[in-house]
């Protein structure tokens, strides 16, 4: 009797397990547990707790795997859609160059509009224009600064022609730049940055106009001061000035002075430097119908100076013993240059420097026909080659 009950109990448990395992979890096995006659069947099922927990964990894992699989499938579908859209965009950009340009510029072209207000491509011509303008303005500013340095010179025709040339170039530049900027703004819808640059351009041009005007107003003061000025009204052999100090040995020099003369033919000898054994160690002379010349150790270079118009002129001559290189400046402008003028011959010391006369002997031997006639001011000599900025500042 007890054996029959045990058999029925085992059968019931088997049915329960088969019912719970209706899903296909693979091979199954029957578990029989001895249960007392008066025991509860539910408690008997709980006795198989280890198997239940294991089955529950397996089910949870299967559910997690299924969810992840669904997620992966969904993501694959999204990737396929995005890939298809990207392919369509690439094919459209190939067929539509205008759209590619708009995208490359960072902006989108609006229908019915030929303007690209945000693209870098539309800014390229303006950028090139502004770059060229900057270079031209810088060149003009440099020349204008030199003109300001020379503004203390007299109002000679050469200085006036330089100012007129600068003024005409500025006017032409203004017309060209404003025309090009207007064209860019009308054709390309110029951005706000280009408008700001245009304002800067106009301001710079206005400033240049004002500086030119100030220079023109100050022309009356373009002459040396009354100090350090000598006057030689006649050609004589007794009017001169002798410098008390001698020159040192020089391997280079720069000599500058102001001259004003209307003498003809030739203005004479503004200065001469003689040393023992060489009366023409260093001489500046314009004699007869010859052009002005500079002599170093009896070697001669012709200078492009034209100063006998009765106006003040500022002249400078530089020289170096290496290769005998020389340069000549009149009113701040280089008029000539050359080499092989007494190369590798140093200017000797312990000589006599005379203003207004040419020396045939050390400190004397003056000839009235070679005397300087006119006015001489601010005579300076340096034992090195000055830059134009140093010489004319």
Automatic annotation (TrEMBL):
Quick one: signal sequence residues?
A: 1-22
Q: Which parts form a coiled-coil structure per UniProt?
A: 130-176
GO MF annotation: an example: metal ion binding
Spans annotated as Disordered: 90-122
**What is one Pfam family matched by this protein?**
Pentaxin
Q: Which InterPro entries match?
A: ConA-like_dom_sf, Neuronal_Pentraxin_Related, Pentaxin_CS, PTX_dom
The record's Gene3D superfamilies line, in alphabetical order, gives: 2.60.120.200
The cofactor(s) it depends on are:
Ca(2+)
What are the alphabetically sorted keywords of the record? Calcium, Coiled coil, Disulfide bond, Glycoprotein, Metal-binding, Signal
Domain Pentraxin (PTX), first and last residues per copy: 226-393
Q: Name one GO biological process term.
A: axonogenesis involved in innervation
Q: Which PANTHER family match?
A: NEURONAL PENTRAXIN-1, PENTRAXIN
What name does the UniProt record give this protein?
Neuronal pentraxin 1
The scientific name of the source species is Macaca fascicularis
Q: Which gene encodes it?
A: NPTX1
């Amino acid at each position: 009797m007890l054996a029959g009950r045990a058999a029925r109990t085992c059968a019931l448990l088997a049915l329960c397990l088969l019912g719970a395992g209706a899903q296909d979890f693979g091979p199954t096995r029957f578990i029989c547990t001895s249960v007392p006659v008066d025991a509860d069947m539910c408690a008997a099922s709980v006795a198989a707790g280890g198997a239940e927990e294991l089955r529950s964990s397996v089910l949870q894992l299967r559910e997690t795997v299924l969810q992840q699989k669904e997620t992966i499938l969904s993501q694959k579908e999204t990737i396929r859609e995005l890939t298809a859209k990207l392919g369509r965009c690439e094919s459209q950009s190939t067929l539509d160059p205008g759209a590619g340009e708009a995208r490359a510029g960072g902006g989108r072209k609006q229908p019915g509009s030929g303007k690209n207000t945000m693209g870098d491509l539309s800014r390229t011509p303006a950028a090139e224009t502004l770059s060229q303008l900057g270079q031209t303005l810088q060149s003009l500013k440099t020349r204008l600064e030199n003109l300001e340095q020379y503004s203390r010179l007299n109002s000679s025709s050469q200085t006036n022609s330089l100012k007129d040339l600068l003024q005409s170039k500025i006017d032409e530049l203004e017309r060209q730049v404003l025309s090009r900027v207007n064209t860019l703004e009308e054709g390309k819808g110029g951005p706000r940055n280009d408008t700001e640059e245009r304002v800067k351009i106009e301001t710079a041009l206005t400033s240049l106009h004002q500086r030119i005007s100030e220079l023109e107003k100050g022309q009356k003061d373009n002459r040396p001061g009354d100090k350090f000025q000598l006057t030689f009204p006649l050609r004589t052999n007794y009017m001169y000035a002798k410098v008390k100090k001698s020159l040192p040995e020089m391997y280079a020099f720069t000599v500058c002075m102001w001259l004003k003369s209307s003498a003809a033919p030739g203005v004479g000898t503004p200065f001469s430097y003689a040393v023992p054994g060489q009366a023409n160690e260093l001489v500046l002379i314009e004699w007869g119908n010859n052009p002005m010349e500079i002599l170093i150790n009896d070697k001669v270079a012709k200078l492009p100076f034209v100063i006998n118009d009765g106006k003040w002129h500022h002249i400078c001559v530089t020289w170096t013993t290496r290769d005998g290189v020389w340069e000549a400046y009149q009113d701040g402008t280089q008029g000539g240059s050359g080499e092989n003028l007494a190369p590798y011959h140093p200017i000797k010391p312990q000589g006599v420097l005379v203003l207004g006369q040419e020396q045939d002997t050390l400190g004397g031997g003056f000839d009235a026909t070679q005397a300087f006639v006119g006015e001489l001011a601010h005579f300076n000599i340096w034992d090195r080659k000055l830059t134009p900025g140093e010489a004319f500042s």
